[in-house]
Amino acid sequence: MLAHATLAVIVPTRDGFVVASDSRVTYMGARCDGISKIYTPRPARTVAVVTGNSVFVQASTSKVSNPCQWLASAPRLLDMNAVVTGFLDHATPDPLSFSLPDLVAGCVQATQSFQQSNPAALRAYAGMAIFSVVVASYDPGTAATTLYSFAVRLTAGGSNGGNIEAARVTQTKVDASSPRSVWVYGDAEWLNRIVYQGPGRRFLNAATLDFLQVHSPQGDVPLELAQAVATNLIQAAARATTANPPPNSIGGEIRLMVVGSNPLPQQLSSPPAS
Question: What's the CA gap between 178 and 175, in Å, rounded?
Fold first, then answer.
């Protein structure tokens, strides 16, 4: 049995970056709220987020009356959140020495091992991405944010429904001269179609619309504006789900974190997503 995680956004600024996500996970048709999707591994000024089908848990041998309670305690057959944070915790403490290829290989290998032990578990994802990973790190020396991201997918065909491989592997450096932007992970296609360009656009406030339309340098963006934009995007997405549901539910409290000159990311108060 698997659990779906949904939406996260990162907004780089002149003094670091803001990362926000909803806190809802869908499991057995139930909406489980209050689940953090932003992780703070050992390297300083670094966060990690995993979206998609990131957790597979052991099915219960009896009827589950509370799916969210079972999800919290059930044995994990595959937990990519633990794989990613475990790798980063045991890697170099210097985020500037982070090895994206090694992390990609570790995630692919963990998924392959799961597939071998549970041949039928991933067959429904043939030709599709199973989950995506993003790691973001801030360097106060250069005032630059580096975004590492990739997906792990199952190819179509084969005895197990396909082969496990990495896709869309990217490493992007955003500095003060880069155009300001919002980086979206998870249900990004849905957000673009329904919120940016569709009926959910009415839930975006003036500050967010200005941010999206005016491409001034990232060096002009204060942390306060980034926080407001990130929060409004998650709230708009949650409100838009009523009439235009995304592949996975979006909701619960917003998890909001600032990563800047302090080695430890700062957790901010959690407003409701909807």
Answer: 5
User: Strands 7-13, 2-5: parallel, antiparallel or unpaired by DSSP?
Assistant: unpaired
Residue 166 has pLDDT above 80, yes or no: yes
Evaluate if residue 203 carries a pLDDT over 90. yes
End-to-end Cα spacing for the chain: 27
CB count in 10 Å sphere of residue 98: 20
In the numeric block, the tokens 């630059």 are attached to: 144
Q: What is the pLDDT of residues 103-119, one digit of tens each?
A: 999 999 999 999 999 98
Residue 2 tokens read as 């698997």
DSSP state of 59: P
| 139-152 pLDDT, tens digit each | 999 999 999 999 99
Neighbours of 193 (CB within 10 A): 14
The predicted model scores a pTM of 0.92
CA atoms of 194 and 189, how far apart (whole Å): 9
Look-up: residue for tokens 């700062």?
A: 266
| DSSP bridge partners of 151 | 167
Tell me the domains of the chain and their CATH numbers. 2-260 (3.60.20.10)
Helix (H) or strand (E) holding 114: helix 100-117
Output the average pLDDT for the chain: 90
Rounded CA separation 218/195 (Å): 23
User: What pLDDT band is residue 2 in, cutting at 50, 70 and 90?
Assistant: low
Enter the tokens of residue 116: 């071998």
